[in-house]
Amino acid sequence: MAHAFLITGDQESGVQEATRLACAVVGATEATHPDVLVCTYDLLSVDDARELTRLASHAPVRGPQKAFVIQAARIFHEAQNALLKLFEEPPAGTVLYLVVPQAGALLPTLRSRVVMHTTTKTPAEAARTFAGASPKAREQMVTKLVERARSEKDDSQAVRAEAEQFLAGLVQIVYQSPRTKAGQAFLQDAARLAPILATRSAPLKQILEHVLLTYPR
């Protein structure tokens, strides 16, 4: 079993998911369990990294395992270097969950020591959520997808493929809905954009922003 995981996204949902996983590891029903430690930082410093390493050295209180949820909006490079040993070889029975906004914020040396745990919905689920969301929520979904494509350079093609499937899901939803002028116009645009989106050099941001503007409200 892996002992260090990376969760990317916004703080609230990331911490919730990490805490759920941490509770499952120690067999807890709530986050107040003594073997589940949740630490959040606006900026994680070297001193914070050293304190986390110290806390991780403590034995579990109630069982054979303990779990740490570490959320940080930003992490100093020096602090990431200070965490390398902890994430490479944590104390026995210790599982770590690191929650950051974007994987690109991590140094390659630290990122290589964690397993990506994705909470992203499948493209079909995301399409259904988008279709039923408010204009503001739709904009946030598009923004997050574009940011992932920019920050996760190693996985940018996977994100692009996800965007293709997302668009295909939207097309299916509109196609199965009552015919409207807006829906017909969207289907025509989608037919033109889908082949472009499949190319490596496709302007993902511009395409998704166009989808945001033209999808029937």
For this entry, give a set of tags.
217 residues, alpha/beta, Rossmann fold, 2 domains, five-stranded parallel sheet, 9 helices, 5 strands, elongated
In CATH, what is the class of the largest domain? Answer: Alpha Beta
Order of helices and strands: EHEHEHEHEHHHHH
How many distinct folded domains? 2
| Rg estimate, integer Å | 21 Å
Describe this structure in words.
- The protein is of the alpha/beta class.
- The chain has two domains: 4-116, P-loop containing nucleotide triphosphate hydrolases (Rossmann fold, 3-Layer(aba) Sandwich); 123-214.
- It contains nine helices and five strands.
- The protein has a five-stranded parallel sheet, sandwiched between helices.
- The longest helix has 20 residues, at 156-175.
- The radius of gyration is 21 Å and the shape is elongated.
Summarize the structure.
This protein is α/β, with parallel strands linked by helices and 217 residues long. It has 9 helices and 5 strands, in the order βαβαβαβαβααααα. It has a 5-stranded parallel β-sheet with strand order 2-3-4-1-5, with helices on both faces.
Topology:
Blueprint: E1 4-8, H1 11-26, E2 36-44, H2 46-56, E3 66-75, H3 77-88, E4 94-100, H4 108-111, E5 115-116, H5 123-131, H6 135-151, H7 156-175, H8 181-197, H9 204-214
Parallel strand pairs: 1-4, 1-5, 2-3, 3-4
Helix pairs in contact: 2-3, 5-7, 6-7, 6-9, 7-8, 8-9
